[in-house]
Design a protein that fits this description.
Layout (H helix, E strand, L loop, with lengths): L1 H19 L2 H35 L1
Helix pairs in contact: 1-2
Length: 58
């Protein structure tokens, strides 16, 4: 969940930076968006492993 929130916040910052011409804000947004995507992917993999482990246990 946190990864998706960070990704969304990054998209907003990136768009705001483009809108007002603030390259630094735009760059920060891109970084936050990328980190959020990675965090979300990690969370997805972690959840998939938990689900697979539950299936094996059953």
């Amino acid at each position: 969940m946190k990864g998706r929130i960070n990704e969304t916040e990054g998209k907003i910052k990136e768009a705001a930076g483009k809108l007002v011409g603030n390259e630094r804000l735009e760059a920060k947004g891109k970084i936050q968006k990328t980190l959020g995507k990675a965090q979300a992917k990690f969370g997805d993999v972690k959840q998939n492993l938990k689900d697979a482990a539950q299936t094996v246990v059953k």
